[in-house]
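Request: How about a record?
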Amino acid sequence: MREDFNFSGKTVLVTGGAQGIGRAIVEAFALRGARVMIADLRLAQAQAVAADLKARACQVDAVDIDLADATAVAKLVQGLERDWGRLDILIHNAGYFPLTPFAEITSPILERTLAVNLSALFWLTQAALPMFQHQGAGCVLVTSSVTGPRVAYPGLSHYAASKAGVNGFIRNAALELACHGVRVNGVEPGMIATPAMANLGDDQVNGDIASRVPLGRLGSAEDIAGAMLFLASDLATYITGQTIVVDGGSTLPEV
């Protein structure tokens, strides 16, 4: 194992870590020595991931949370401080994106999308900040998206708006928290083959999408986890306020 990617002694919180990209992130850090807490609305699924990794000699626990609840988010981080005594890497990966035509977006859909994708990021980071200040360092990572900051997708106006907000958060929080030794960065996935991706189209549609990606395939959850590992590692200690696009080159063509 490269020392740059040895996270022994580090504690990591991953929201939305029960499946897909989140699960790959959890596994990537846990298998490299980190102690990981999965925070997910799907508790049984998160516990199954934790049990699988514990069987492989990893330190992983799971807790249920509705990230739209700001009070619950604060209590989650406070519980980590009480039980673990520190938090080194905060990864907000959870996302909410029901495919909905623009004219059919309702107030509850918009409010929950913004609450889970964007507002929770504020409350998680605020709650973790005292620990980061005490430690003199901290790392905040976010799963953003190319949808919103760079491209558009029919039926995801609410999601696109939330992710554009996430990228604004990354830049501004990075500026404000740098004096505390806190780095804030994100990853912008393109089309990634996950259970959630299946909700956006059938196999034929996804196959057509893959054929238009310059690298010739949909991305994997592990592709995103690899970028997260890099941004959290000692190789990236001078990087903050940035996002890495992981999309197989799909945003490169002009048309």
Observations:
- The helical segments are 20-30, 43-54, 70-84, 107-135, 157-177, 195-198, 203-211, 221-232.
- The chain has one domain: 3-246.
